[in-house]
Amino acid sequence: MNIAHKAPLDGIRVVDFTQIIAGPFCARLLADCGAEVIKLEPITGEHMRNAPPLRDGVSSYYGHLNAGKKSVAVNLTEPRMQEIIRKLIAESDVVVENFRPGVMKRLGFDYATLSAENPDLVYCAISGFGQEGPRALQPAYAPVVHAACGLEKSLMEFVDGDEAPRKSGAYFADYLAAVYGFGGIQTGLLSRFRHGGGRFIDVALMDSMINMLAIEVQAAQFPLENPRRGFGPILAKDGYVITTPITQKNFELLVKVIERPDMLEDPRFGTPFNRTTNWNDLMSQIELWTKQRPTKECEDVLMNAGIPCSQYNTVGQAITDPQMTARGVMQSVSDAAGPFLVPNPPYKFSDGSVGVSATVSSAGQHTREVLAKLGGVSEAELDELVAAKHVFAA
Q1: Cα distance between residue 206 and residue 172, in whole Å
Q2: What's the pTM value of the predicted model, to 2 decimals?
Q3: Comparing C-alpha atoms, which of 138, 130, 85 is closest to residue 108?
């Protein structure tokens, strides 16, 4: 019998002070697991509400990062609002913020202040370089952290010539920090339930990236005797493919498929170590076969033989791949401009209790509801706060 379960974080309330990418995505993952996430945003709306792509003035990018949250639009610097928000937090389980260190303390929402009123509070602060240390107060977006952590220099190891680091529009550090924050919060909640008491969790984009660079960190301490292999494209008839015949079995299958038994006797390729050392030469030999065939044929033939291979897809092609459809990776979400697709979390619960919410709140949509229910604010005072522009209620 398939028994329906409550979502894992059902009954957990999160107060979300975050903006841009890392913090919002961390809090969205909590909402995906069933938590009630109350997003506090400026009365003019959070910055990402204006980020393209826009449809009828509504950002699907914002919706991607904030689906499933309740929106309360407030002026955090107004003393009465600070008092109301502290009351709200006293009735909550988790706070997530990604301001620069010191901002929350100036507003009266730092962990020391809030935990005095709510000792069981799990508080996650996400920042560029962490809450302490000589760089703690420095501003940092993901591209800056990518340069600072050594990622860009390590990528240049595989580029021929004296080229400048390449431009990138990806924000790895933001999403990695979001996931580490999500895991830290879950661990803090588990600790609270088992041992009692709240936790302060300090997540840094810089630390998150350093944790990803395992071989690079070790090679920085113990230099490698031979150059590392660089995985990259090889030419096909109508584009490029990538293949990674790393194991001995993969290599033996490959030479059989491309009808090159002579490569088994070539001393450059006879052992895994030699193939690593001579990786570029190996790829050149394989390219003699791939460039005679379309990318799709290369992928199909090699993958069917058990050899890892892929053509280079666009994101549009990837999210419409039959495998994505079969797994239900993409979920339809709606905001004021209509439906769009957002990926579900990359972990599936068998009972279907975890997944991105189907709706995105407009700015201030839940201001009255939340402040009345959890902040103890009367209808008359809410009207006064709206009139004074201390809050915005949609």
Answers
A1: 11
A2: 0.94
A3: 85
389 Rama sector, left if φ>0, alpha if ψ -120 to 50, beta otherwise: left
Both tokens assigned to 75: 């002026």
Relative orientation angle of helices 142-149 and 172-195, to the nearest 10 degrees: 90
| CB proximity list for 261: less than 8 A, separation 6 or greater | 255
**CATH class of residue range 234-311:** alpha beta
Q: What angle do CA 324, 327, 328 make, to 5 degrees?
A: 80
Q: What are the respective helix, strand and coil percentages of the chain, to the nearest 5? A: 45, 15, 40
Cβ-based neighbour number of residue 320 at 10 Å: 13
DSSP 222-289: S--SSPPP----EEETTEEEEE---SHHHHHHHHHHTT-GGGGT-TTTSSHHHHHHTHHHHHHHHHHH
- Classify 13-214+328-392 by CATH class: alpha beta
Report d(CA 364, CA 223) in Å as an integer: 54
pLDDT band at 2 (very low <50, low <70, confident <90, very high): very low
- Each domain of the chain, given as residue ranges in start order, spans 13-214+328-392, 234-311
Q: Backbone phi, then psi, for 205, in 5-degree steps?
A: -60, -40
Query: What's phi and psi for 64, nearest 5 deg?
Result: -55, -40
Q: What burial class does residue 107 get, using C-beta atoms within 10 Å of its C-beta: 0-12 exposed, 13-18 middle, 19+ buried?
A: middle
Cα–Cα nearest to 327, from 311, 312, 353, 345? 345
Tell me which residue of 246, 276, 98 sits closest to 175, measured CA to CA.
98
pLDDT at 23 over 90: yes
Question: CA 344 from chain center: how many Å?
Answer: 12
Q: Does residue 215 register a pLDDT over 90?
A: yes
Measured in degrees and rounded to the nearest 5, phi and psi for residue 100 equal: -65, 145
pLDDT digits (tens, 9 = 90+) for 312-339: 999 999 999 999 999 999 999 999 999 9
Q: Which residues, in sequence order, are CB contacts of 190 under 8 Å at separation 6+? A: none
Please name the residues in contact with 159: beta carbons below 8 A apart, sequence gap of 6 or more: 166
Query: What's the pLDDT tens digit per position in 270-292?
Result: 898 899 999 999 999 999 999 99
Q: Which among 155, 172, 173 has a CA at the least distance from the CA of 164?
A: 155
Under 8 Å between Cβ of 360 and 335? yes
